[in-house]
Amino acid sequence: GWCVRAKGRNSCMTASRLLASLFFFCVSTLVAATSDSSPLPLITKLQHEHANRAPTHPQRYHGRLPHRARRLSDSTLTRSNTVPIRLLTNYDSLFEDRAPKYSACFREGEWFRRGLPSVQPHATASGPADRVETCVRGDGEGSSASDGCWGKCLADDVITASGRAKLISVVDLLANDVSKYLAVRPTANLSFTVSDGAYARALTAKGYTPEASCAADCRVLSGVHVADGYCDGGLGWGSDVVLSVTKPPGIAGVAGTGSSCASDQSGRPLWIVLAWHKALSGIESKTTASAAEAERGFVMHEILHGLGFVNSMFNYARDSAGQRKYMI
């Protein structure tokens, strides 16, 4: 449930006006950002393949837990029952001591992993058990990324201290603007659950052993660092959505991707991921203001994808009676 804050109106936009606005917004941001197509993030690919099944983390809104079967028409969004969305930005995955193993590059020549390659990690050394690079770099890279592969970090993949600092400054500046456009029913105390994850079978099918953890799908499938405090320590309280920023090794022609890895009982995204694929050298030498202006379209576009404005969500959207609408 998102409410677009229409200027000068006392209520939220209707679904048709919302979709029209998002269509024009997405077209304009795509033109401003990049014309390159992006491979689907692993979590999004699994959502497409499993009827938009989302990792569920039940939430309370206004102090109570809505029944799963409650009619959507009983929960109409208005200006009086929504507030500007509160994003909690998280940059833990950009730091070597917190980033999940093989998810990011901190030194040239180190091993990285995309997706769930069939070859398991080496038992005692870094990298794959067979020591073979399978990630194609350059043309055709998207296809090997979708299948899962192992590769070695290039200079442009590396997260430097100065590049990380500039990325954080840029995203902080732009993420603050999201609350100007979207409003939601406020979450009472945003928190997540401990489990093997919604897609544990995808791991076992590739030979990986699922491990119960806080927001497991975010950690395993999205390459996000998830502190235990998001499940039992109140780290998410006071927010409606966690926005994690990651910097995976670059993919030729891809600026980045936006996805969600955790949702509430109604399918509303609670944890979204902005994966920045471009080399940080592109923003490192710019001022924060000029870099933010140059990247605004790209960042806002990917955040919108993470918040649910993506084909799988539209494809499996349901009406007030709970019937699938077949929008696309």
UniProtKB/TrEMBL annotation:
Keyword Membrane found: no
Residue stretches in coiled coil: none
The protein, known as: Leishmanolysin-like peptidase
Protein's organism: Haptolina brevifila
Keywords, in A-Z order: Signal
Highest taxon in the source lineage: Eukaryota
Secretion signal span: 1-33
The UniProt record lists the keyword Signal: yes
